[in-house]
Amino acid sequence: xxxxxxxxxxxxxxxxxxxxxxxxxxxxxxxxxxxxxxxxxxxxxxxxxxxxxxxxxxxxxxxxxxxxxxxxxxxxxxxxxx
Length: 82
Hints:
The protein is α+β, with helices and mostly antiparallel strands.
């Protein structure tokens, strides 16, 4: 994992949740299978776990979306200490 990915991962797991994490940085961190869905949706598969979402229309995730990313990463076996 690159230094930039570690920084993004740490930012995702900060408490309280932030509202300024850029979504494309989250996608790059995942390094997972990412496919476009309908509208602004994106499907992400990582370690056998699936999630569907993309923040819209801003480039940054909101706090609720970031909490969803946290849950997804934990379910996929990726935590803040990775």
